[in-house]
């Protein structure tokens, strides 16, 4: 009991200190905003006038005292306010984790939006104008890239590639379905006579489709914020988060397409066809830009062995350049960042030092965490800033249509996907995927980009977008964790990979590749093996320096595990006194091949002659090639009987063999005292002939 009392007292003091710091900061932020918006008769102006007077009459200004304390806020206003916002975000994140049991009740994103609402309300309550903090350029060029880079650099490649088909179907087909379903039905509702028909009737079909394309995309920031707290299993996490990453290309194309069509007013078949081509250009172009910059980053890291300090800088610069280069050509910057991070990571980590790897990891985590916190706070402030045009019919129908479209899209697409998946998506999985389709700041920023002159309904759109964001983040985000517990959905298991698991994984990959080769089927294991061979033979030699390019994957994985275990041992205090030169008892160096102690002649393998070796190679080459030519492509979904083969020849051969076996059996029976039962048919019912002298004996 005493210890519990002390802990409560310390937590209370921390809570009080935290609240005091927040209040002090809010007062300072209000002061800075009020001071920044003051008129020109400020101390800065007086100070500049004083300097001018000094310049003009320096000889006559002998009686003016030297300024001991001066005030010049305008020179530091922008960096000072940025620092205050970052400080507020950091304090809010710190306070969220200090308050006990708060994370089990309210998601962090909801609390941050509430903080933003409070800050905006305080600024407005003082009579000042709320600044437009969530500007589209600030969001897309400053706040969003670190979050996407962190997700792409640490993206689990294996589960992502294994579920790539499912992710693409949800991202492309699902987003198209949501956009046209919401936009089309919303246009029908706007045309129905209501009390506010004079307002809604002005919204045309193209404007509704544009709004549908904005509101239909799942937001990666909101998904990350909620799904990382509920610790959902890896399959569901990669499906929903992968969808939120890859639907960016569809959203960008639909947004620009309907925005242009709304300005023109007419849609032709040629423009629609060009819009379809634009989707592939935006998606594949973004991936290509990301791959190019990822290769450049990996190649640059090959020469940084003498300047380890700047190694993390290349990772951040090349990634940001990939994002900006994609945005220059209206390509998908999100897909460029994902491709850049995923491509550069295996080669960069093989070249850079362990300290640089740690720096990259924690700096990305810190940067993305602060950006995510600022996005939700700014979303709350922007909600207070307005302006809004509330329409009950439009807002209510939008929320309902978003939910209905999401449920129908997930259920319908999963019904088709499960026909081709080995691991089926259950009803619980479908519910979590549909319920986890959260909207966020990307939709708000896209709506904020609309110009008031071309889109008079911009304020109605922004109000509906904010309402949908609040509904998905607060209602769905707060209830998804209890629903996961109620439905007993499988959660993520924090299991450390072992050498045994890695060996079995590689063994199964090779085994499945061999099975596909024997069956004549070019599956994803076949192409994965081809890609790995090309990577090992050519790419690694160009992008990885030294002997690490020739290091097998298993040994490289072992070195990583050994390094992690050594760091954990040192941090726990058990390995501080170990000499650095002492090798590990289980190090791979102890099992490296050593020079043979015995003469080579005693252990020499019998050599084959050139003719024999050539014959064996010819036999293998011809038979393996015949396997490809003889067998049709095998697929478990298309394994049906061949209608051109009646099987009579096989049946005839089997019967002929059975007759021969039966004759041999009868012949041996006649010579061994075993004969057929009397008055029997041709069934194989046999009886044993016992001699009389043995039959009369009793046992």
TrEMBL record:
It is a multi-pass membrane protein. Keywords: Antiport, Calmodulin-binding, Cell membrane, Glycoprotein, Ion transport, Lipoprotein, Membrane, Palmitate, Phosphoprotein, Sodium, Sodium transport, Transmembrane, Transmembrane helix, Transport, Ubl conjugation. One of its GO terms (biological process) is sodium ion import across plasma membrane. Its main location: membrane. Residues 87-485 form the Cation/H+ exchanger transmembrane domain. Pfam families: Na_H_Exchanger, NEXCaM_BD. It is found in: Basolateral cell membrane. Residues 581-665 form the Sodium/hydrogen exchanger regulatory region domain. It catalyses: Na(+)(in) + H(+)(out) = Na(+)(out) + H(+)(in); Li(+)(in) + Na(+)(out) = Li(+)(out) + Na(+)(in); Li(+)(out) + H(+)(in) = Li(+)(in) + H(+)(out). The chain crosses the membrane at residues 16-36, 105-126, 138-155, 167-187, 270-300, 320-343, 364-386, 392-418, 430-448, 460-484. GO terms for cellular component: basolateral plasma membrane. One of its GO terms (molecular function) is calmodulin binding. Belongs to the monovalent cation:proton antiporter 1 (CPA1) transporter (TC 2.A.36) family. PANTHER family: SODIUM/HYDROGEN EXCHANGER, SODIUM_HYDROGEN EXCHANGER 1. This is Sodium/hydrogen exchanger. It comes from Oreochromis niloticus (Nile tilapia). The gene is SLC9A1.
């Amino acid at each position: 009991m005493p210890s519990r009392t002390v802990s409560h007292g310390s937590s209370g003091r921390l809570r009080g200190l935290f609240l005091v710091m927040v209040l002090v900061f809010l007062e300072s932020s209000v002061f800075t905003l009020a001071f920044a918006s003051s008129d020109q008769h400020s101390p800065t102006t007086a100070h500049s006038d004083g300097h001018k007077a000094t310049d003009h009459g320096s000889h006559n200004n002998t009686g003016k005292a030297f300024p001991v304390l001066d005030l010049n806020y305008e020179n530091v206003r922008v960096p000072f306010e940025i620092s205050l916002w970052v400080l507020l975000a950091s304090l809010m994140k710190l306070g969220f984790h200090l308050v006990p049991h708060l994370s089990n009740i309210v998601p962090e994103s909801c609390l941050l939006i509430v903080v933003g609402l409070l800050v905006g309300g305080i600024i407005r309550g003082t009579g000042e104008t709320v600044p437009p903090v969530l500007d589209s350029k600030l969001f897309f060029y400053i706040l969003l890239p670190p979050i996407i880079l962190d997700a792409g650099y640490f993206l689990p490649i294996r589960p992502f590639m294994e579920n790539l088909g499912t992710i693409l179907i949800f991202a492309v087909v699902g987003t198209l379905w949501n956009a046209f379903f919401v936009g089309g039905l919303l246009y029908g509702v706007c045309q129905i006579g209501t009390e506010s028909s004079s307002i809604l009737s002005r919204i045309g079909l193209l404007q509704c489709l544009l709004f549908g394309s904005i509101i239909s995309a799942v937001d990666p920031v909101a998904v990350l914020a909620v799904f990382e707290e509920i610790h959902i299993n890896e399959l569901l996490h990669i499906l929903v988060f992968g969808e939120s990453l890859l639907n960016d290309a569809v959203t960008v194309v639909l947004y620009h397409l309907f925005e242009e069509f709304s300005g023109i007013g007419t849609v032709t078949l040629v423009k629609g066809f060009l819009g379809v081509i634009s989707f592939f250009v935006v998606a594949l172009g973004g991936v290509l830009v990301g791959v190019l910059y990822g290769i450049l980053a990996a190649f640059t890291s090959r020469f940084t062995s003498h300047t380890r300090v700047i190694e993390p800088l290349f990772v951040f610069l090349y990634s940001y350049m990939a994002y900006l280069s994609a945005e220059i050509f209206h390509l998908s910057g999100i897909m460029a960042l994902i491709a850049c991070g995923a491509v550069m990571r295996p080669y960069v980590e093989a070249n850079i030092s362990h300290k640089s790897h740690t720096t990259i990891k924690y700096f990305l985590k810190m940067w993305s965490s602060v950006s995510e916190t600022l996005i939700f706070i700014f979303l709350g402030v922007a909600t207070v800033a307005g302006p809004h045009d509330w329409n009950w019919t439009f807002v209510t129908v939008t929320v309902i249509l978003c939910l209905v479209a999401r449920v129908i899209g997930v259920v319908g697409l999963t019904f088709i996907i499960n026909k081709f998946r080995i691991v089926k998506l259950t009803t619980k999985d479908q519910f979590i995927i549909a319920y986890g389709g959260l909207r966020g700041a990307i939709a708000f920023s896209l709506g904020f980009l609309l110009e008031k002159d071309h889109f008079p309904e911009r304020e109605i759109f922004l109000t509906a977008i904010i309402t949908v964001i609040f509904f998905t983040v607060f209602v769905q985000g707060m209830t998804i964790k209890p629903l996961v517990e109620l439905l007993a959905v499988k959660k993520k298991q924090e299991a450390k990979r072992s050498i045994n698991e890695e060996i079995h994984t590689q063994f199964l990959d090779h085994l499945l590749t061999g099975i596909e080769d024997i069956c004549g089927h070019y599956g994803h294991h076949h192409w994965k093996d081809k890609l790995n061979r090309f990577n090992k033979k050519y790419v690694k030699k160009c992008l990885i320096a030294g002997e690490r390019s020739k290091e097998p994957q298993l040994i490289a994985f072992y070195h990583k595990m050994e390094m992690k275990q050594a760091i954990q041992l040192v941090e726990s205090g058990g390995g501080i006194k170990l000499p650095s030169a002492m090798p590990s008892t289980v190090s791979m160096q102890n099992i490296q091949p050593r020079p043979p102690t015995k003469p080579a002649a005693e252990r020499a393998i019998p050599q084959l002659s050139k003719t024999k070796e050539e014959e064996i190679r010819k036999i293998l080459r011809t038979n393996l090639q015949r396997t490809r030519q003889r067998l049709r492509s095998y697929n478990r979904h298309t394994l049906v009987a061949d209608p051109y083969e009646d099987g009579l020849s096989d049946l005839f051969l089997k019967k002929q063999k059975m007759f021969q076996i039966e004759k041999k059996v009868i012949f041996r029976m006649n010579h061994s005292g075993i004969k057929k039962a009397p008055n029997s048919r041709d069934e194989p019912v046999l009886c044993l002939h016992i001699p009389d002298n043995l039959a009369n004996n009793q046992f």
